[in-house]
Amino acid sequence: MARAVSSVRIKSLKAYTVEEAAEVVRVTEQTIRAWIKQGLPAMTEKRPTLILGWALKGFHEQLRKKRRRPLQDGEFFCLHCKEPRTPVAGVVEYQRLSDAHGQLRGFCSACEGICVRIISRRDLPKWADLLDAGTNDRRTA
Ligand SMILES: [Zn+2]
């Protein structure tokens, strides 16, 4: 089982090389270099490139938060984009998962891949517009 990556292991006052930073956050060195390009503060003037722990910690936490952003109204999670997306209206279907929950499935408006959203069954009426925009015959609530 993969252990959850936590920024707790990062020591704020330590300077990490790219290799050490990759080790401590459990990503590849390539990812760390990409993060530097995306704005992770690093001392790149001399070799080896050094990243201060506090900067790595802050950047890492920001990334995790961004990834964990809850879905807003009307958004589905696209399994392909791995991002919140809006589904193409009219081809959304509801699938019952349990007495209390169900899954809405649709097609991502960005990539046309499958996007999903788990909803509480009692919230189903809120999604009626999306479900009713097309044919009703896929609806199995
Ligand atoms: Zn998508």
Molecular structure report:
InterPro entries: DNA-bd_dom_put_sf, HTH_17, WH-like_DNA-bd_sf. With 141 residues, the protein is an alpha+beta fold. The chain has 2 domains: 7-67, Arc Repressor Mutant, subunit A (Orthogonal Bundle); 76-132, no CATH class. The chain has helices at residues 18-25, 29-37, 53-67, 128-132, and strands spanning 15-17, 50-52, 76-78, 84-85, 93-96, 101-107, 114-120. The strands form 2 sheets. It has a 5-stranded antiparallel β-sheet with strand order 4-3-7-6-5, with no helix packed on it. The protein has a two-stranded antiparallel ribbon with strand order 1-2. α1 crosses α2. The longest helix has 15 residues, at 53-67. It binds zinc ion (ZN).
How is the topology of this model organized?
Layout: E1 15-17, H1 18-25, H2 29-37, E2 50-52, H3 53-67, E3 76-78, E4 84-85, E5 93-96, E6 101-107, E7 114-120, H4 128-132
Antiparallel strand pairs: 1-2, 3-4, 3-7, 5-6, 6-7
Helix pairs in contact: 1-2
The structure holds zinc ion.
